[in-house]
Amino acid sequence: VISQTIKCRAAVAWEAAKPLTIEDIEVAPPQAHEVRIKILYTGVCHTDYYTLSGKDSEGVFPVIFGHEGGGVVESVGEHVTNVAPGDHVIPLYTAECRECKFCKSGKTNLCGKVRATQGRGLMPDETSRFTCKGQQLFHYMGCSTFSEYTGTYSSFPVPKDLVRPVLNDCIISFSLPVKSPVVADVSVVKINPKAKLDSAALLGCGITTGFGAATRTAKVEEGSTVGRRECGCVGFGLVAIFGMGGVGLSVAQGARLNKASRIIAIDTNPKKEKLSREMGATDFVNPLDHSNTPIQQVLIDMTDGGLDYTFDCTGNVQVMRAALEACHKGWGQSIIIGVAAAGQEISTRPFQLVTGRVWKGSAFGGVKGRTELPGLVEDYMEGKIKIDELITHRFNLDDINLAFDAMHGGDCIRSVISF
Ligand code: NAD
Ligand code: AHE
Ligand code: ZN
C-alpha cells in the first residue's frame, strides 16, 4: 500500500519564546525505514519548554516539539519490519539500533545511528517530513509528538550485503534474501495494546528517565538504617533527590522499588511534599527553610556524613554542585539528569572527587528503549510503576499553551495532551 501525504493539525513553534500556534500541516509519507504514527496522547516535558525558551544550543525553528507520546502506527515505509499499521507504539528519542559501537558496547543506552541528524531537526536522509504554508518544519528529538501525525525513523538502511537489487524495466527495487536477519529498527517501540496509552505515553520520557536513573544508572542498593555506619555499612540505601517534578518523583519510585532505606526529597515548592511521600520519599526538605545553611550541609548533618546517591532533577548547575557535595566521602554517587542551558557549566573542588565522590549523567534513565520499554509498560500495568498519579492536568491540542503555563504554576506534575 502506498501511503499519501496527510493533512492534519499540529502545534508549531515558529520562533523561540513565543506561544505555539495550531496549524494545518502536511506530513509526507514515510520513506524507507520510516514509520508514520497517529499520535493519540503526548506529555509535555520540561525539556520541550527548555528548547522553546531558546536556551538549547540544538534548538532550531520552526519546529514541532514533543517527545513523550503514544500512538498507533498509520503506515510504514519500505523495509520496516518491527512495527506494522495498527500497532500501539512509543516513539524513542534515544534510539536503539543494536548495531553501532554504543549499542554494542553494553555500557550505555546512547545510540549513535541517528543522533546527528536528529539533533539538527532532520530525518536521517537530511530532510523533513513536515511542511506548513509551503515552509519546511523541523522535527524535534526524532519524535515531534505535538502533531496529530508524525514521522519517526524506524530502521537504518539495509546493509549492502543483505540487499539484492532487482531490475524491473526502469524500476530498481530491493529484496532481502529469505534467510537474512531482521533489519534493526531504531526509533520506535511496539508496546502492549492493552496498556492505557495516555499514561504509557509518559514512559516516552519523564517517568522512564527518573525510574531508570535510580534502577539502571545508579543501581540504588538496598539499604538498612539500623547501625548502618557504625557496624561496617550494612547496605547503602541513602538517597536524596533534588527537584520533585515528573522526573524526580520517578527517581523516588525507582529508589523505593530498590529498597532504599531513606529517600530525601528536596524541592523549593512545598506543594511537592505530599506526592513525593506517596512516591516513596521518607523525608522532605525545602532549601528555603534553611537559608543560613547550604543545603549540602543540611543533608550531611541529616545523614551521618552524606548520601549514597543523589540525583539532580532541576537542571540548575548550583543544585548539581550541592547534590555532588552532599554525597558521602568515599563512595557517594551523584547523578545529573537535569538539562542546563547552553553556556552553563558545573564546578566543584576537585578534592570532592579525589575523596571518592562520583559524578555521573543519565539520559533516558539509561534505558534501552526497544529492549526495555515494553517491560516498563508491563511494570506500569502491574502497578509497579505509578503513572496515573502523576497526571495532574489534561488539555486538548488547541490548549497546549496552557500546559506550559501549568508547568510553571507550581501545581503541575505532568500534563497530557489529547488529540
Ligand atoms: P519539572 O519542572 O516538572 O520539575 C522540576 C522541579 O524542580 C520542580 O518541582 C521545581 O520546583 C524544582 N526546583 C527548581 N529549582 C529548585 C531548586 N533550586 N532546588 C530544589 N528544587 C528545585 O521538570 P521535569 O519534567 O521533572 O524535568 C526535570 C529536569 O530533567 C529538567 O531539567 C528536564 O529538562 C530534565 N530531563 C532530563 C532528561 C534526561 O534524559 N536527562 C529527561 C527528562 C527531563
Ligand atoms: N539539545 C540539548 C540536549 C539536552 C539533553 O541532555 N537531552 C537529554 C534528554 S532530555 C529529555 O527530556 C538527552 O537524552 N541527552 C542525550 C542526547 O543524546 O541528547 C542540549 O542541551 O544541547
Ligand atoms: Zn523529556
Written overview of the protein:
By secondary structure, the chain is an alpha/beta fold. The chain folds into two domains: 6-158 and 184-208 and 366-418, Quinone Oxidoreductase, Chain A, domain 1; 219-361, 3-Layer(aba) Sandwich (Rossmann fold). 22% of the residues lie in helices and 23% in strands. The chain has twelve helices and 19 strands. The chain has helices at 46-52, 101-105, 115-119, 197-200, 206-217, 246-257, 273-278, 295-302, 317-325, 350-354, 369-381, 400-407; strands at 6-12, 21-27, 34-43, 69-76, 88-91, 130-132, 135-137, 149-153, 164-168, 171-175, 188-190, 238-242, 262-266, 283-285, 309-312, 333-336, 358-361, 391-396, 414-418. Strands 3, 4, 5, 8, 11, 18 and 19 form a seven-stranded mixed β-sheet that branches. A hairpin with a 2-residue loop joins strand 9 (164-168) and strand 10 (171-175). Helix 5 packs parallel to helix 6 (246-257). It is globular and about 65 Å long. It starts with 5 loop residues before the first strand and ends with a strand. Residues 157-184 have low confidence and may be disordered. The structure holds nicotinamide-adenine-dinucleotide, ligand AHE and zinc ion. Residues 45, 47, 56-58, 94, 110, 115, 205, 339, 363-364 line the site of ligand AHE.
